[in-house]
Amino acid sequence: MSADQMSVGEMLAATVPMARTLHLEFLEAGPEKAVVVLPDQGEFHNHVGGPHAGAMFTLGESASGAIVLAAFGDQLSRAVPLAVGAEIAYRKLAMGPVTATATLGRPAAEVVAELDAGERPEFPVAIEIRRADGAVTGEMKVIWTLRPNG
């Protein structure tokens, strides 16, 4: 399967070993929203039996990467997306499978216009992490850039 035929989730699973290691499930990966699930797996639990904080961080960062690829995949010939910063807040105890939903914090067209102007745009991606009962267990923000090639 070529990169053109792969979904964003398949591409991330193929190119990001940590996504494969955690068995992340990419349910949706579009320019408006990305949804990724971390299944409940004992080998990634913490001391209280829920998903380890590092696994939850990777889940959120992976959801942010999925939306960035979906929104800016057509720019990959001239710029590489890079995460430049992140922060996470753990709000409630997470147990069982958790789902991360990512949304862009700026219009994609605005970011591309900055790239067109020769700038290196930065933009936030907001992520909510929820457990199966819908409770928000974590909130995350990842700042991304599109670094021009060459």
Automatic annotation (TrEMBL):
**Pfam families named among the record's database cross-references:** DUF4442
Say which domain of life the source belongs to.
Answer: Bacteria
UniProt xrefs under InterPro entries: DUF4442, HotDog_dom_sf
- Protein name according to UniProt: Acyl-coenzyme A thioesterase PaaI-like protein
Q: Which organism is it from?
A: Streptomyces achromogenes
